[in-house]
Structures are given as structure tokens and as C-alpha cells.
Structures
1.
Amino acid sequence: MERTDSIILAIETSCDETAAAIVKNETELLSNVVASQIESHKRFGGVVPEIASRHHVEQITLVIEEALKKANLSMEDMDAVAVTEGPGLVGALLVGVNAAKALAFAHGKPVIGVHHIAGHIYANRLIHEMKFPLLSLVVSGGHTELILMKEHGHFEVIGETRDDAAGEAYDKVARMLELPYPGGPHIDRLAHEGTPTYPLPRAMLDEDSYDFSFSGLKSAVINTIHNAKQKNEEIIKADLAASFQQSVIDVLVTKTKKAVNQFGVKQLLVAGGVAANKGLRTELEKVFQHSGVELIIPPLSLCTDNAAMIAAAGAILYRKGKYGTMAMNGQPGLPIEIMN
Ligand code: KG4
Ligand code: ZN
């Protein structure tokens, strides 16, 4: 029996946000609480796993209590507890998984393990109904993937990065340009003040591949900076940021457009932290506005890590009766096909 009536509490702790949210009947967001740790990781220029785990332990109970309070509900009102099972930092994942198992066990509710990227994709469903087949461009700090969906809860990875994720490249280049962590938003802002004058590569890989590669681009930026230093030339940061951003956008948009055409999809969903990128949004809007393909990009608060997206994806598993067990563990390398 499929059940679309549901109230799901979800927990997300895969990286540097401790988050809890409640979603009713698959799409109605009742509360969405996110405690960000960015300030603690900033001075190290990236996420420090041990610090992330400790913050999750400190915050998790408070964040869950706040999510219940904001929704004006108690644990007894919940139908299930969903949690990010992976991928992510193992120590960080474990905090969420253990909190979810403890709550579910104590209140006699099922626990549901959710794939983090399935969550990012399902963030879109909180603002718009999904129409299949659809293609999802997932661009985050840890992932760059093109995922095809022909029905709810079924994911086919048709392309992925062979090295760095798009967000990771943004963060590394930002570091080279002495911008604060996370660098994506800073490069995005700078790029709009500059012109793409530096020649940088676009790794399209084989003609028929939907895979991505960003490490060559990252190295090219580093080389450009080193060469300028050796020649005592000044780097125009805004122009270099604009050149880098243009290269990333060209590759993402070219491959996405090709996949949209090949698979004849009805919708293109954009998911993950890099979906917040203004340059990428503008270019996608331009390319797809008269294409007959519906472009959906979530608001910024649903692009970066949150638990509302985990609840939305978890609701589909709840509907199908796909529950986890008390043996659930954090899975750093969990494949998305596990959700199918
Ligand atoms: O999805 P997310 O919050 O966490 C992961 O699951 O990785 O994505 C974080 C990533 C970071 O690399 C950050 O620099 C990037 O998203 N990001 C951006 C922008 N806002 C966040 N990248 C480019 N432009 C932005 N405006
Ligand atoms: Zn994420």
C-alpha cells in the first residue's frame, strides 16, 4: 500500500550544517532549521572533519527540538524519522544516524536512510511538482553529476566528475585568490565585476561522455597565478574569477544541454550548493527559456545543505515502505542507486 499522507522529521549532518526539518504530505514544509558551522571552519580554509563531528554532537538535540517547536508538533505526531545515511564525512554522518535511530527507537517510529544527493534533487519538489522523465544537474561541494529520473525515487547517473567536484574547484580557486571559505559565492560576486580575459581550458572529455573533469581547470588557474608572480605581473582577480566561472559554466551547460536533448526530458532540475551561482542560473535560463523544457532551480536556502530536502526524499521511501533498520550506519561512499 502506498501512503502519501505523512509527517516526516528529517536530520542532515553529512558535512558542516547540522539540520532538522519537518515535511507534511511529501511537499509541505512545516519547519526547516539549519545550524551552520562555517564560522568554525573558515580559519582553516575548509571543513575539518573532527570539528564538524563535535559541532554536530553539540547542536543536534537543539536543532531537532527547534524543528518540532517551529512546526508546533511532537515526536508522537511523526510518521517516520529520515536521516542522511551517506555520502559525506563518516564521523559527521554518524551523529545524525545515531540521533535518528535513537529517536525512532524511543518513539516506536520507522527510521529511513536517505542518500544526500537524492535529497538535493528532492529539494526541488518542495517548490514545484516533478514531471518525468527529468534530468537533474547536481553541483555541490562534493558532487558533480547528471542524474536521469523516469519516476519518483529512481535515479540513473549518466555522468559524473572524474576528479574534483565543481564546488570543490570553486573553493580551491578561491583559496588561491585569497578569498574566504567557502569560496563559491565570493568568486561568483567577483566574476560579475570582471571580464573573462584569461584563456582557460574547457574539459569536455570524449564526445559521447557526460562525465566532467575540473582538476585541469583548477591547475590552469594555479599556473596562471604562478606565472604572473614569476614575471612580477599583477593578477586581475576579478578577470581571473570571471574566466574561471565562464569555463565552469560552459562545460556544465554544454553537457547538460546535450543530455536534455538526448533523453528528451520534460524538466531540468538544478541541485546542490553551486546551483546558487548567479552566472550559472542566468546562463541556464537563457539556454532553456524557449526550449520547451521546464527549468527549476530551488531558492538559495534549499540549494545548500538542509534537512527539508532529506524529508522530501525520505517521504518517497516512506510511501514505498522502504525503511532502514537499527543496524544503519553512516556510509561515506553510498551510491545513489541504493535508493532505487
Ligand atoms: O551542497 P552544498 O551546500 O554542500 C555539499 O553537499 O557539498 O555545496 C557547497 C558548495 C561549496 O563548494 C560552495 O563554495 C558552493 O557550494 N557554492 C557556490 C555558490 N554558493 C555556494 N559555488 C559557486 N557559486 C555560488 N554562488
Ligand atoms: Zn550537499
2.
Amino acid sequence: MPQYQAVKGTRDIFPDEAARWKFVEGMVHVLASLYGFSEIRTPVFEYTELFQRGIGSTTDIVGKEMFSFLPDPKGRSLTLRPEMTAGVMRAALQNNLLSSAPVHKLYYIGELFRKERPQAGRQRQFSQFGAELLGVSSPAAVAEVITLMMQVFESLDLHGLKLRINSLGDTDDRIRYREALQGYFSPFRDILDDSSKERLEKNPLRILDSKNPALQELIAGAPRLYDYLNDASLQDFEKVLFYLRERGIAYEIDYRLVRGLDYYCNTAFEVTSSELGAQDAIGGGGRYDGLARELGSSADVPAVGFAVGMERLLMTMEKQGLFAALDSRAPLVYVVVQQQDLFDHGMQIAWQLRHAGIKTEIDLAARSMKAQMREANKINASFALFIGSMEQTTGFYSLKNLITSEQTLLSLEAVLELLQESAAKEPLKL
Ligand code: HAM
């Protein structure tokens, strides 16, 4: 066993898998821009207080899962970002983005860090893509964000995903609900675990998030937030659902959906995949009108967004066989050198081909011609271009179509022309 292993909960992504990532990322870039979202990249670490204030100190993420460190004994504690939303809002407030335009539509693809117990679909370093719409959180804005997320899934041909949605109401609704929950859970204080006892005082809504099996029955009997919504909240939620129905987006109202971050209000949603096992949430999001003020803004910044876990998305795509076409993509032409004294000539030809935009491979390990042909087949090259002494003297090259086995003798110009034509039919994909 080698001396050094990757840290538990992290993993390496090798070229075949990286191709899949680039394919999905490409789709995210295209669709986000179709909806008018522009990319933002924020730092991987922030001051710890940003997440404590933003996500909420009674959440599992802040309470148990942050990778925090002190840069020096007198410094302020820093934390590797466990999610993107707080950092995006911090960046918008710090740079006064909303004074230049009332609405900002931002998206991202980035690495996150949570100290969770690693298991299938749950890592300590993972990736998300997501979008944040800042400045407006009307039902139309909420629907826009959900529609973008669902269109990404659809464009990737994913099927069988379930969108669950709920309303968490406005601040007043939640104050009334909080009292109702305290009234419900207080008589059972003795059977609550320590963290739920603490949450009972500070943030009883978080008890609903508990994974403790011993509490599930009690939680199931708790009052529903939905029953505490005022008319405006109900109407707002209804309008979001109306937009989704208009667009043929199937959803299920889940009255128990609260999400694991404190900043949400009104509509919150989650998408699950039955393909994923225990960690079945592929993405989630919602409205977070209170976050800006929580981070010290003197003005309200209504906002809504979502994030999708890349690893879980890729796992689902793999299970649904959606990478078959991608995996068979290959270099177009393999330059086969018949004798090693022609290697430099072969390199020169390979350079000319690449310079003309043709994807080209050549063996750099001085292997036999047989081994080069084996390699060309292994990597699914479409053509082999032979470099022999006859080719070098006449300037005519044997080009073999490795799919039909047809072989022709062509001038280098004709080879370039034919390969360019063929490349145009199957453009270079990264
Ligand atoms: P979240 O539900 O905590 O939301 O994370 C979103 C997605 O990230 C999850 O559905 C899951 O697919 C993935 N994910 C979370 N933790 C892990 C992990 N340890 N390993 C692998 N994948 C994971 C948020 O992060 C919010 N910031 C979403 C949002 C954006 N709300 C508004 N705007």
C-alpha cells in the first residue's frame, strides 16, 4: 500500500470521469446563460462568523460540520465554505452590487467542504453548481430559478427525479409556528436528545431536521408549518405552484420539508433521486429574504436560489446510462510510425494535423508498430495515418479508416481535407 492515501471523504477524478464533469459543467454554463445568469467565483474560505450568522448556529452544518481553523493565534477564525449562498451574498453586499442594478442573477460551480461521515454520495469535499437570484424573490423569480434547475436535469436526459416543495412562511408565520412547536415538544423534554433540547429553546424548527430514529414518531406528530401560513404566504406559494404547472413541472407538496439551513423563508424545495439510496437529495434551495440583514445589510435584499450536488448528479447519470455516447468519444487520428528513425517526421505531421484543428495521437514511448496499432484501437481512433519511408519520400500517406478498414493513399493536403471534413461532422468535445 502506498504511503499516502487521499484523505477520507475526498477523491481523485481521473480523465475518463473528468470528461463527464466537463460535459455536465458545459451544460450548466450554456443553460445558466440562456436564463441570463452570469458566473461568480468566490473564495474557498471565509470568516467563520459569515456562516454562523448566515446558515445559523443551531444547524448541523455550523454546529458539527465546518472545517474551521485559526490562521494565526491572534487571527479571526476562518472556515472552508460548506455552501455557496452566504459567500455570494457577502460578495454582493461588500461590492454594493445591488446599487448598480436592482436584480443580479449569478451562478457558480464550486468546491465545498463539510465534516460529515463519508458514505456513498456524501463526501467531505464535494461540488455544487447553483444559481442565486438577488434583488427579487417574487413567485416569478422563484419559478425562474426552479425552472432553470429542472431544465438542466431535463437537458441531461435525467428521469425519475422528484421535486418536493413546501412553504416555510414569512417571519410572522414562523414566530407563531415556533411557539406552537415549543408548546408541542416541551412536555416531551425528557425524551429529547441533548441537541434537540438545546434547539427547543433556540430554534425548535431544527428539531424537525433531526435524524435521531428515536424521535421520528414524535416529530411526525408535530404541528405543520403550513397550517400557520397567513393569506399572503399562501397566495405567494400558490402562484409559484401555478407557474410550475403551467410549465409542466411535476411537484409534490411536502409539508415536512424544512431544509437544513436557517436562512430560508416562504418557498423551499428539494429534488431527490430514487437512484441514490440514503443520500437521495440531488439538489435543493429556496427563498432567503432575511439573509442580507442577518449579514448586516441595512436594506432588504429579497433573494432565491438553488444548488445541485455534482457528485450525486453524476452518480444518477451513471446509473441511468447517460454517459454511453460520451465515453466512446476518441481521438480522430493516430499517427503510426513504421520505424523509429521516422519518428521525427511523424511528430512533424502530428503537429501539422493538430495545428489544422484535428485531434491527433502519436506514441511517445517508441513502441513497435503492432503496439501502436493496438493502442489506436484501444482508444477508439477513427483513422490511422502511416508514416513509412515511402510516405516520407513521396509525400503520399496511407490513411486507414479503422471503422471500415478501407485504406487510401493521399497527399498530405488531401489527408488534411478529409480529416477536417470528418472533424466537422464530429466536433471536438472536451
Ligand atoms: P444543501 O441542501 O445543503 O443546500 O446542498 C445542496 C446539495 O449539495 C445537496 O442536495 C446535495 O446534492 C449536495 N451535498 C450536500 N452535502 C453534500 C456532501 N457532504 N457530499 C456530497 N454532496 C453534498 C445548499 O447548500 C444551499 N446553499 C442551496 C441554496 C442555494 N439555497 C439557496 N441558494
